Amino acid sequence: xxxxxxxxxxxxxxxxxxxxxxxxxxxxxxxxxxxxxxxxxxxxxxxxxxxxxxxxxxxxxxxxxxxxxxxxxxxxxxxxxxxxxxxxxxxxxxxxxxxxxxxxxxxxxxxxxxxxxxxxxxxxxxxxxxxxxxxxxxxxxxxxxxxxxxxxxxxxxxxxxxxxxxxxxxxxxxxxxxxxxxxxxxxxxxxxxxxxxxxxxxxxxxxxxxxxxxxxxxxxxxxxxxxxxxxxxxxxxxxxxxxxxxxxxxxxxxxxxxxxxxxxxxxxxx
Length: 270
Description:
Layout: H1 7-29, E1 38-42, E2 45-48, H2 49-65, E3 70-73, E4 85-93, H3 95-99, E5 106-113, E6 116-124, E7 129-134, E8 139-141, E9 144-146, E10 158-161, H4 171-182, E11 187-189, H5 194-203, E12 208-211, H6 216-228, E13 232-234, H7 242-245, E14 248-251, H8 253-267
Parallel strand pairs: 3-4, 10-11, 10-12
Antiparallel strand pairs: 1-2, 4-5, 5-6, 6-7, 7-8, 8-9, 12-14, 13-14
Helix pairs in contact: 1-2, 4-8, 5-6
GO molecular function, one term: metal ion binding
Family: Belongs to the inositol monophosphatase superfamily.
Cofactor: Mg(2+)
């Protein structure tokens, strides 16, 4: 059945409601996470009981409206079926920040329709900021239109990144890229939440963002936000397969071009 234009705002409303409910859970437990509530999924990759409660809340809300839709969420097995709808959820992006009381974390919810990103929402509970985008209709922060930075060169911009803690064997290559950027930009930030880095790039705070070894739920909503804010998003190979490859470069058209050149000089054919 074809998707009616009116459907996408409805899906966004459901995502917003789900994020606000889960945000209450995150705010209630912030600063109260004990060691008994934390487990290690993999080396240096943690999950808390709060992540799981947030995810359960989001999934339950979505399923109450769209029970036949597929769901891919960070803390549970994917629920795939024949539906052309797939919700991509990160119930707490920035878990390590959250555990240590660093107030930089968010909820990310995106919707793919027939394999294409159609809607994305990122909610920053402590600041109560909601970033949202519908394909073809622009990006917004608290219902106000946002755009990527007007900066056209690396020398006049601030960029963001994350470190590849899941694949530490590439750290030498990553540090080379980091140094190359460091010598050109006004500054580099590492916030610890990829979805927020992408939201801030869409808002124009950062001129660009790059990272690798990410999961789809880290990137889906934020990538759409950047694109709908007028930016460019690719993986390190300059394709639109970032949700599959796990590497991402996002920024203004001009800055993306400069970032891609630097990254590929080290990572291409690695």
